[in-house]
Every structure is written in C-alpha cells, then in structure tokens.
Amino acid sequence: MRSCLLFLLFYSHLFIVQAQSRTDTMLQNLLQREGSPALKHILQYPDSFRYQLIYTQIDRDADNTPHFKNYYLEVDANKYFNPASTVKLPIALLALEKLHELNIPRLTGNTPMLTDSAWRGQVKVYTDSTAQNGLPSIYHYIKQVFLISDNDAYNRLYEFVGQQRIHERLWAMGYKDVRIVRRFMPLTEEENRHTNPIRFVANGELIYEQPAAYDTLSFDYSRQVTIGVGYLDRDDKLVFLPMDFTRHNNLPLTGLQHMLQSVLFPASVPAKERFNLTKDDYRFLYRYMSQYPSETSWPKYDTTEYYNSFTKFFFFKDGKQNIPPYIRVFNKAGWSYGFLTDAAYVVDFKNSIEFMLTGNLYVNRDGILNDNKYEYEGDGYPFFKEVGEIIYKYELQRRRKYKPNLRNFSINYKE
Question: What three-state secondary structure class fits 209?
C-alpha cells in the first residue's frame, strides 16, 4: 500500500511539473518535420538546452487590423533563463515614458544628460564620443541599446528610471514576474538599489535635476534557481557548485513577447498594458529596433565588429548571410551565461509577410558558468537561424484571407 501511494505521488508530481510546460503540436511537428539533424538533436533534449519558443501568427482583417495567435514550444515561466540584454527593451520604454510624465519644458530625449555619482560603484558620465555633439542623451542611449545592445547605455537609462519605478510600473501593467534589479556592472545588490543623481543641461542652463534614489521595495526570492555544475567567481577561481541565479534579473518569455507586441501593435493590448508613448516615440523606436549598424553615422560603428546582423539571431546571426533588402527585423536580443534570447517581429515587404518569433536557448556543454566558454557559434546561433528560416518558409506558403498593409513599418533609414 505504501509503495502504491509513493508511486502515485511521484507520478502526480511529475504530471504537475510537466503540465507547467506548454507545447502546441503544430509548432512541434513543423520543426521536427523540417529541421536538420542538428536542430532535431537540440529539440530532443529540452531539459539540457532549456529552450522555449513562441511563434506568433498575424492575420489582418478587412480593415487591416491585426489578429494574433501564439504557438508555444516548451514554454514555462518556471524554467529560468537569464534574460541578459532583453531587459533593455522595457528600460528603454520606461525612459521614454518618464520623459513624458516629467512634462518639463525643454526636457526632451535630445537634452544633454549628465550623470553624477553619490554612492559606491557609481560612475560619472558627462560626455559621449559616439554622439554628434559629444554629449550623452536619452535618445542616443536608446539608439545604442538597439543598434549594438550597449551595456553602458542601458546602465544610464536604468539609473534615470530608477529601480523602484521600474518595478512599480511593470508590476502595475501586469508583468508580475519581471525583476530587473541589476545593472551590467560589478555591483552588489545594495549598490544596485541606489541610482545616481542626474542633471539635464542645455547651453549651460539646468533644465531638470534628479536626485539620487534608493529602492525600498521587497522582492520575492523564495524560489531558488541554480544552474550548472560550477562557475568562476570574481577572482576567476573555479567553484564546484551550481551558479545561483535566484537574485538575478528575471523576464519570462511570455512577458517579453507581450512587451514587444505592445510596442509594435499597441492597439492590440488592453490600455493598462500599453506604455505611455507618443506617435513620435513609436517611429523613433521602430527605426532603431530595425536599423543596422552600417546605416547610422552617429554612432559610427566598425561594421567588421558590429556587422548588420550583430543583434539579429533569427535568420542572420552568422554575419555572413546577405540580408535581403525587403526584409526587416524589429527586435531585441540578449546573450549571457550561455543563454541566448531574441524577441523579433519579422516583416517581408516584398511578399507581404509578417510574424513574430520569441525564443531562448542554453548552450553550455561543460556546465561551467562565467567562463565565456559557451557553444554560441556551434549550437546557439545556428539554432536560431534555422528556426527562423523554417518559420519564414512556412509563412511564405501560409494562406491569408487579406493581404497586410505594412506601411506603418516602412522606414527611410537615410533620413
């Protein structure tokens, strides 16, 4: 009797754990049918590669209003992945929101932003050599975040918004599981709670002064998250214990996909889930979410390092494939600790195709973290590229009742 009870308890627990992972047969069968042996190998081991995918079909009605249907593969909010630079998407949006809410005359995204310091680990930033006028600004930081995923630009935007404001706003919008508590700097948890004093100055005149801030919110760290078999500590010493991600940033894949949809198609989500952005904000975001490093003079990038597909994982990440001029990808990608993530909206203006793909993958064969020895090139980027190509080919033959009008996403990048 006791053995039977243990058996039932074990399989009940197994069912509950498995039930948390959402998979749609259509997407699963499509990738299995069209995938290469290398892709099928990864798909065979969801626990090892920790992959998750969301494929979003978009169909327009007679009024060109988009309608969305999500297909999931191994999507589970409890399957942790390090979101890396994808957290830069909500921070950029919140920075634009804050500018509007301050509503201060002459305070715009172009107003020079001077970052001071008032706590341990904080840095002062008064100049920006990549800007045409040599001065940092909100707009210029956002450009760098999307064009090359610049970490310093993210850090400055994080400090402008403030850690407490980040969470109060995102939680109120319904993103209850989002946690963005780290800059991309070697700071302690306490140091990350403190954000810098900032001044906005134009022609020597102080336009707005923001004092240093401290986050008093409490975060739920009750669910422990550990990954791997070992890691390198700050002194590059190997520690033979799993790396603890419990207090790291957290951004579930469904939340990331929804954020991207809310920016590209704000009318498709409830009002409370939209960011407070203007028409000009959207045009600005669309430009730099889809522009290539070679298409901008300020910042001016070395395109051998920052090639056109530098932040485009689906289709193009190998850097060698010529990107067709009629395709644009509006996205935010991230990579760190062996995790690769991309949230993308793909537009083919020639064939009148649009769809969204959001996914993540973990590639770390030896199980050691923080050693910069990950299989990004061998397994990671090819996975994203092939998945993107399979979905794209499927979309080419998928019948639509109404042809989409995509002019809202057509941008003259030479302006």
Answer: strand
Q: What is the mean pLDDT of the chain?
A: 94
Check whether 17 has a pLDDT greater than 60. Answer: no
User: How far apart, in Å, are the Cα atoms of 5 and each of 9, 12, 17, 41?
Assistant: 6, 10, 18, 36
Element (H, E) at 30: helix 25-34
What is the CA angle 211-214-215, rounded to 5? 135
Checking if the pLDDT of 235 tops 80, the result is yes
Identity at 407, one-letter amino acid code: R
Q: Token pair for residue 191?
A: 């140091």
Reduced to 3 states, what is the DSSP secondary structure of residue 319? coil
Residue 167 per-residue DSSP state: H
- Structural domain harbouring 96: 21-409
Q: Examine the pLDDT at 4 and tell me if it is beyond 50.
A: no
Quick: pLDDT tens for 325-356. Answer: 999 999 999 999 999 999 999 999 999 999 99
pTM of the predicted structure, to 2 decimals: 0.94
Q: What is the pLDDT of residue 319?
A: 66
Q: Do residues 47 and 97 make contact, with C-beta atoms less than 8 angstroms apart?
A: no
When divided into structural domains, the chain yields a total of: 1
Q: How many CB atoms lie within 10 A of CB 369?
A: 24
Q: Which of 374, 291, 301 is nearest to 330 (CA)?
A: 291
Helix (H) or strand (E) holding 354: strand 353-362
Residue 273 lies in a domain: yes
Q: Where are the beta strands (DSSP E) in 91-229?
A: 113-115, 194-195, 198-202, 205-210, 213-214, 226-227
Residue 7 lies in a domain: no
**113 φ, ψ (degrees, to nearest 5):** -115, 115
Q: Which CATH number is 285's domain given?
A: 3.40.710.10
The whole-number average pLDDT for the span 78-88 is: 97
Three-state DSSP state, 60: strand
For residue 254, tell me if it sits in a domain. Answer: yes
The CA distance from 229 to 217, in Å, is 32
Domain assignment present for 376 = yes
